[in-house]
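Lab notes, practical 5.
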Amino acid sequence: MEHMFEPSAGEGPHLLGVPADHKVPGPSNIPANPTRSDDSAVAGNAVLFGPGDEEAAAAIARTVVIRQQMGALQAQELHELATLAVWVRAGNTELYGCDTAIAHRSLVADLAAAHRVSDRTMGRRLADAERFVTDYPAAVAALNDGRIDLGHIRVIADHGLPIQDDTARSVYEQAVLDKAADTTPGRLGRYAQRAAATCGEVTFQQRYDQVYKQRRVWVQDIGDGLSELGMTVPTVLAEGILDRLTQQAKAITGAAGARTLDPDTGDLVTGEPRSYDQLRTDLACELLLTGQPTGCEDAPHHAGIGIRAEIAIVIPALTLLNTDNADTDGGGGGTGAGTGTGTKPGKVPLEPPTLAGKGPIDPATARRLAADAPRLTRLLTHPVTGMALTADTYRPSAKLRRFLRLRDGRCRQPGCTRSAGRCDIDHTIPAETGGPTVPDNLAHLCRGHHTLKHHGGWGVKQVSPGVLEWTTPTGRVITDQPDTWPTFTESVTGTCR
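Output from the prediction step:
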């Protein structure tokens, strides 16, 4: 870490470009003490606003200012912690002992006591601070300016771990930082994962082959006679498992008929009493223990027999066609082309396939699934924006639904990440008022945000195909576009059963 220091005669070491007496300033447009509602408007913990939305809108604006101030302070804290971490490990102090490892542990304990947190928590903060400041200085500067939150930096740094080359990491940082300014950390994760796979010197196939070896099943006791059963499996299998369980749960609920209650006792008289979550859990246990739901017609899970999972995979055409495995390490049975930066002479960077609405999957698995897929849909995207333009197939049944699912990928409310396969298709202009059933007037919304659109005081219009403009109850306007990926021009999508 010597490169982090800039020696200066007569004073201790400090971070490169950050003087020892440096104080990270807050954004220039943030007042020292932002105004707030009059104390007379506060009753208990509830702020009482008038009938208009002016006060509510002002309160929301104040929370944004506060978050910007917090970002500036968090950036300053990151610099201070990073400086301490480098200082003690460089052996420039006798305060915590001569042994570097002991000195580091002592510093962590000292900080933990000062901050009233555990040593483990403080150790993680210290390591994160050094990693953020050293490897992602532009992201820390954006945090200081109030353009992103600390959660965005965590996503950027976590997904950038495989990138060891400084130049490649800088390219990755800038690409993801541009996206971070107008999206949530949750949604940024999928973009960062894709960008890291494209920018990194290690191919996505190689990374997948390595972590694939870590798949496992575990049980954790949570008390009261219950335990959590967990699995680490390839994403494509996990999504397929959840999809099949959901379809079976819906079939069982439908077979049980409508729910009716006894008017006197309120007890369920007819219909399936279990929720989808409960049904999925019961089905998973039965499938794992018996291999198949009970075949008897009177069995509660009979309606779930024969249902298979369905998933949609988007495969860049060049990745699908390229079968050269020279860019892989041959581990994990992978036979796919590299998806890194093409550092070898003559290599063209290839993008990894993507599970629609989720993140990347390994190319070898995607090609195998594409070979067995009962149907393929060609998806054409805009060469600059990456937005889906058209989708065609040799079997055009349900063509519009497939197109919308591939275009949207998720619920189109700006902060939501629920996959399109578990959302409603909503008419932006309601059908009952003349809204047409065409792509320019349709978008996926999860049930909760579908309800919010109609009954929660929100407004939405489709300003151009696939671009939704939301208006909050307090008058703020938020534009949501389908998730796009860099240099993503033409793909082949396989729907696998």
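Observations recorded by the TA: The chain is about 40% helix and 15% strand. Residues 1-32, 34-43, 325-345, 486-490 have pLDDT under 50 and may be disordered.
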